[in-house]
Write a structure and sequence with these properties.
The longest helix has 24 residues. The chain folds into 3 domains: 274 residues, Alpha-Beta Barrel (TIM Barrel); 89 residues, Recoverin, domain 1 (Orthogonal Bundle); 118 residues, 2-Layer Sandwich (Double Stranded RNA Binding Domain), CATH 3.30.160. Helices cover 41% and strands 21% of the residues. The strands form 5 sheets. The chain has an 8-stranded parallel β-barrel, surrounded by 8 helices. A 3-stranded antiparallel sheet has the order 13-14-15. The structure holds acetyl coenzyme *A and 3-methyl-2-oxobutanoic acid (KIV). It comes from Anaerotruncus massiliensis. One of its GO terms (molecular function) is manganese ion binding.
């Protein structure tokens, strides 16, 4: 099957920002725009410049910094809006003016108070005006899905004749069904006088069909789709970009389409937006929800451990999530339990594992989720954390403060007696020390998590550091104990590295 590329038009910064509670300030919009470019979207709709001086400034600044994606500014079919949109996007490497006017009877009569003929005339004048300013003009027929089809086509023909190179068919109020959207796009495509333009769709999610409507529109021939990160947008939101992109990718056999999205940036983009607007996604949201790649039940965990594809249709890696998550709880089975014990670096006999598993099940009845800490407490003396000490800590010196960048010198000793020392800088003393260790051990590891807590009381409390690192698809946890928090952190990191080495060696046997 031949594949064609569908353009991704992101409107997180415009329609997305129209969702209550999702406003972003100037710097946040710039950060988001940079990430959208990294993600590889074809068009960034950066805002509605006439709506406020702040919006204008943000669109203008985004236009100046974004180099690869087209930067669009929205405008009503009003000269002042269009001029303002152009003034904001004119410095972009690829500027676009996006003009819109409603075409449904209900919008024309009650909202615009315009006759259909007046709408056609206004579209002709305003698209022509926009085109006199900008080489790339998109025209949207607001409420297209509730418009008379022949009138809609007439308006699109008018817009194309006046210079629009993209025509957009919005399901503004999320009223369409997937079949209807398919028919509408196919109808418009078949009846346009000049179909050599991009046909775009913009689907809202009022009935939860935004993504399905978008995918059906693509099947009918849409060449551009408008969507938002995490599906934010007016009312119930817009079609979610991550879901569209991953559906096209995962079901390439069915859709025969690709996008220019670097899917490994999807999770990061979602997280960035959630952090900026302070609104997270539901845990069961496809692709980026906390549970999207989590498995809790024993039968599923056993299947995934044996072969990931038994219960995963996509790889978490593909969307930038480091690895799937085995959640240990009351539905888990002994395979997942034994796997986690091994990941934590413990070697236990089958008998001890079976005994610990019984206690684990009792605990799981009382506790919703069992953490690594719980398991460590649970296996207690039954487990012998006898990981081979490939590296031991010999000495360290760390310099840090508010006026210098942190520097650490760490000396490690190998089990064959060889000593190695390295110096490194970091964001803080712990980062500097970890960087120095990385230089010595030269392994491809990633620090996933670091925590510190006092395990005894008083001024001389012992600090226990826990470092979770990932290495070649495995996660291992190291622990370090000392009254000096730097020393316990370094010991925990070295301990985690020793466990990772042991695991690698085991995998090679
Ligand atoms: C479907 C969508 O998402 S469309 C985008 C929606 N986003 C926004 O509205 C956010 C930004 N909006 C704003 O800041 C303001 O609404 C503005 C600056 C655009 C306009 O503000 P105001 O001049 O105060 O008008 P207000 O918002 O109250 O009413 C909208 C006016 O625009 C007219 N209008 C609406 N859409 C269009 C259009 N596409 N082309 C021309 N005129 C339009 C309405 O008929 C109404 O006209 P009227 O003032 O002559 O009655
Ligand atoms: C401006 C248009 C594209 C819009 O946001 C809508 O119709 O929902």
């Amino acid at each position: 099957m031949s594949t064609r590329k569908v353009k991704i038009f992101d409107t997180t910064l415009r329609d997305g920002e129209q969702s209550p509670g999702c406003s972003m300030n100037f710097n946040e919009k710039l950060e988001m725009a940079r990430q959208l470019e990294r993600l590889g979207v074809d068009v960034i709709e950066a805002g509605f410049p006439v709506s406020s001086p702040d919006d204008f400034r943000a669109v203008e600044a985004i236009a100046k910094i974004v180099k690869n994606s087209t930067v669009a500014g929205l405008a009503r079919c009003v000269e002042g809006d269009i001029q303002r949109a152009w003034d904001a996007v004119r410095h972009a490497a690829h500027p676009r003016i996006h003009v819109f006017l409603a075409t449904s009877d209900i919008h024309m009569k009650y909202k615009l108070k315009m006759t259909p003929d007046e709408v056609v005339a206004r579209v002709a004048d305003m698209v022509r005006f926009a085109r006199s300013l900008c080489p790339d003009v998109e025209f949207s027929a607001e409420d297209a899905s509730r418009s008379d089809r022949d009138f809609l086509v007439k308006v699109f023909d008018t817009a194309i004749a006046a210079g629009a190179s993209t025509i957009n068919i919005p399901d503004t109020v999320g009223y369409s069904t997937p079949n209807e959207m398919y028919d509408l796009v196919a109808y418009v495509k078949a009846h346009l006088q000049n179909p050599a333009v991009d046909i775009s769709v913009h689907n809202h999610n009022d009935l939860g069909m935004g993504v399905a409507n978008t995918l059906e529109s693509i099947r009918a021939g849409a060449t551009q789709v408008e969507c938002t990160v995490n599906g934010i947008g007016e009312r119930a939101g817009n079609a979610a970009m991550d879901e569209i992109v991953m559906a096209l990718r995962t079901r390439g056999d069915f859709y025969g389409c690709t996008t220019g999205i670097n899917t490994r940036q999807i999770y990061r983009t979602s997280k960035l937006l959630s952090t900026i607007i302070g609104v997270g996604v539901a845990p069961n949201k496809p692709i980026v929800g906390a549970n999207a790649f989590a498995h809790e039940s024993g039968i599923h965990q056993h299947g995934v451990l044996a072969e990931r594809t038994t219960y995963e249709i996509m790889s978490p890696d593909d969307v930038g999530i480091y690895q799937n998550k085995m959640v240990l709880g009351k539905h888990s089975g002994k395979h997942a339990f034994a796997d986690r014990i091994a990941e934590l670096g413990y070697r236990m006999s089958d008998e001890d594992i079976a005994e610990a598993f019984e206690r684990f099940k009792e605990m799981a009845d009382r506790k919703k989720e069992i953490t690594d800490r719980d398991i460590e407490a649970l296996v207690g003396n039954a487990a012998i954390s006898d990981v081979k000490e490939t590296y031991g800590l010999k000495s360290f010196v760390v310099n840090s403060g508010t006026v210098i960048s942190a520097t650490a010198v760490v000396r490690l000793v190998r089990d064959d007696g060889e000593e190695k020392e390295h110096v490194a800088r970091g964001e803080g003393p712990i980062d500097a020390a970890f960087n120095a260790i990385d230089r010595i051990v030269k392994m491809d590891t990633k620090l996933e998590n670091w925590t510190m807590q006092a395990v005894t009381e008083g001024e001389d409390a012992l600090g226990e550091a826990i470092c979770k690192i990932s290495c070649n698809g495995h996660t291992v946890t190291g622990r370090g104990l000392s009254p000096d928090i730097l020393e316990s952190s370094i010991r925990a990191y070295v301990n985690a590295i020793n466990k990772a080495i042991a695991m690698e060696e085991k995998a090679m046997i």
